[in-house]
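Hey, I was hoping to borrow your eyes for a little while. No rush at all, and the record is pasted right below:
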Amino acid sequence: QPRVLLFFDSKTLSLCISRFLDKNIPTQFCGTGFVHHYYSTMSPQYLQIAHDDFTWLDGPCRILCTTSGESVGVDFPDVRITVNVGVVDENQCGGLHVTLYEPWVLDIKLEEFNDTTTPFHSDPNHPRTILRLGLNKREHVPCSKIAAILAPCIRQYKANYLSNSS
């Protein structure tokens, strides 16, 4: 059974979706740990169990709902589908990759990030404005994430972003 990895930009959404999936999986998988949720502020014991259940070849977990806390430098065995929900921090996984994002992302124009008066304007990951408390996700999303979503070819975008001409 191949595995599915779902990345969320919200702990709450990760938990809600994992509970929804757990309630709606076929009955033979109920109570088996088929679906787990995972984010960095959970207990180390739970994180280890969830990670092992998902990464061990005979582990019961086939769907992992997580935030970017589980994405850094990890090569998961047999992950066939990776889905980003929202504007998540990274999308480094190989194979089939889908990004689901809010409709407001398409309303943002890359020109809105061209304010050269900000101290961080040359950083490709800079937000549209200086960060302050109380900003919503739309206000603090980085330029690079909007550019990646709007790019007609993500491979070409990443090659350009990394100055890779090979």
Summary: The first helix runs from residue 11 to 24. The radius of gyration is 18 Å. The chain has a mean pLDDT of 81.
